[in-house]
Amino acid sequence: MSLWSQAQRAAELTPAYRNRSADFFRAAAITIVVVGHWIVSVPRYVDGGLQFTELLVEQPSIQYVTWLVQVMPIFFLVGGYSNAASWASAQSDSEKRQAWQFSRLKRLLMPITPLILVWTAFAAIAGMLEFDPDLIRLASRSALIPVWFLAVYIMVSVAVPVSQAAWERFGLWSIAFLVCGAALIDYAGFGASHGWARWINYAFVWLGMHQLGYWWHRGIETKLGPLVLLGLGLVSLYTLIWVLDYPISMISVPDEEISNSRPPTFAMLAIGFIQAGVILLLTGRVAKWLEIPRPWAVVILVSQRIMTVYLWHLTALLILVGVSILAGGLGLKMTPGSAEWWLTRPLWLGAMALVLLPLIAIFGSLEAGSRNAGSIPPGPIRSTLGAVLACAGLTFMALNGTYGDNWLGINFIPIALTLAGVALATISRKAHTDE
């Protein structure tokens, strides 16, 4: 059965209580990320050599557009909703409750494994062929940019039992605590010159958006809450950008001293408030529209392979760049941001989509995350340890790539940490049966 047929069948069987708008916003957010990366990352073939720049540098006015295309807050918001729903469902069954973290981590970690192995093999082979080490490092680091976000999301998911308990006890005060924490961390990092403290906001900002998802799941009875959230976001963003001189871009810009996204600042939380307010105001209308079978089937189709698309979309870009170089730099010699460059973007995006399709076909099945019958999943301690090890390795590779200056030609320690972590968190053992 084709993926489209499966999506149509799933659409027919979707229960009435499912929040279809949450699935729509997640699929839309990841699609925007993919298209945004494909446009913002600008490869150029100059004087017989390859250079990478960013459109945010070539056309600084584009930085305002990042307020619309920086949609990672949406993913954490929807993730909070999804985790709240599945966690609540698991509480009625002790076996499901025990396997909850395992099943979540398997869905998130298993699709990463082939990506790491492919780029490890690339680094080793390219090193043996004596390619430029800087080029190998740049290529592998660029391909693995998506895993930094996934590493953060994995740790936020691991914390669900704690964050959900905080929500049940403190409600909206649990969000207020995280918001105040993010503001204090920004003050420590900028006002008190403790720059190292800013990295703590990976927890406060993204946990804050995830906690908003719990609020959404509980049910928002009036429009007042979303309107307040929208207003707070707009006031905060205005104050931060035009009064406190925060960066305009919500995506890291090369050579800029401060980034709003790495690590996230309170400005990212302000954008998240705006996005959450809009989503919560629109969710009813979107859910009503998705009662129509065809658009809902399209959302299901995209969602079936959304993680594969996200993980491999920059690899597709790099493959296309390699093919273009073999063709003498075809399509890579235009001035970024020029009229000619913009007019050819639809062709460029279409070509990358075509390159991505076989990668989806090859690696997409790993998104299923199912558990074999009769197996015992790892306990929470082992799976948490595995998640921590995997995320540590992924973070290092997102920063440095898979190439290493050694006889193997690979960045051995983070690769080993990641693979060991994946194994610890996702490999279950067979249950012993008495005959």
What is the N-to-C order of secondary-structure elements (H for helix, E for strand)? HHEEHHHHHHHHHHHHHHHHEHHE
Q: How many separate structural domains?
A: 1
Specify Rg, calculated over alpha carbons.
22 Å
Name the strands of the widest sheet in spatial order: 1-2
Alpha-beta content class: mainly alpha
Mean pLDDT: 90
The amount of helix comes to 55-70%
Number of β-strand runs: 4
Shape, per Cα inertia axes: globular
Residue windows where pLDDT falls under 50 for at least 5 positions? none
Biggest beta-sheet profile: 2 strands, antiparallel
Structure characterization notes:
The protein is mostly helical and 435 residues long. The chain has one domain (3-97, 151-369). 69% of the residues lie in helices and 4% in strands. The strands form two sheets. The protein has a two-stranded antiparallel sheet. A two-stranded antiparallel ribbon has the order 3-4. A hairpin with a 2-residue loop joins β1 (41-46) and β2. α2 (20-40) packs parallel to α16 and α6 runs parallel beside α19. The chain is globular and about 60 Å long. The two termini are 38 Å apart. The model has no long low-confidence stretch (mean pLDDT 90).
Kindly summarize this structure in a few lines.
This protein has helices at residues 3-13, 20-40, 55-58, 66-69, 72-90, 94-109, 112-128, 133-143, 146-158, 160-170, 172-191, 201-218, 224-243, 266-289, 293-304, 306-326, 339-343, 345-363, 380-400, 412-426; strands at residues 41-46, 49-54, 375-376, 429-430. The protein is mainly alpha-helical and 435 residues long. The longest helix is centred in the middle third of the chain and has 24 residues, at 266-289.
